[in-house]
Amino acid sequence: MKVTAIIPDDLIAEAMELSKAETITETLKIALHAYIRTQKIKELGNVILTEPLEFKYTAQNLRELNRK
C-alpha cells in the first residue's frame, strides 16, 4: 500500500538510526511491528488482570511429575 504522510525529518532519522534500517519503508515497517507487539502485550496484560491465570498443578505436583 502506498501512503503519503508528513513526518518530521528528525523523527525519521532517529527511527532509522535506532532500527538500523536502510530505507524509510523498512524503518516504518519495523516501527509498526514494534508498536503492534507492544499493544498486544498491553491487551494481554489487561486480560490477565481481569481474568487471572489458574494453574492446574501445584509446585509439589510438578516436582512429583518431574521425578517420574
Question: What can you tell me about this protein's structure?
Answer:
With 68 residues, the chain is mostly helical. It has one domain. Helices cover 69% and strands 0% of the residues. It has 3 helices and no strands. The protein has helices at 9-19, 24-50, 59-67. The longest helix is centred in the middle third of the chain and has 27 residues, at 24-50.
Total number of strands: 0
N-to-C CA distance: 55 Å
Q: What amount of the residues lies in strands?
A: under 5%
Q: State the domain count.
A: 1
Residue share in helix: 55-70%
Low-confidence stretches: none
Shape: elongated
Overall SS class: mainly alpha
Radius of gyration: 21 Å
SSE string? HHH
Rounded average pLDDT: 94
Q: What is the tally of helical segments?
A: 3
* Main sheet properties: none
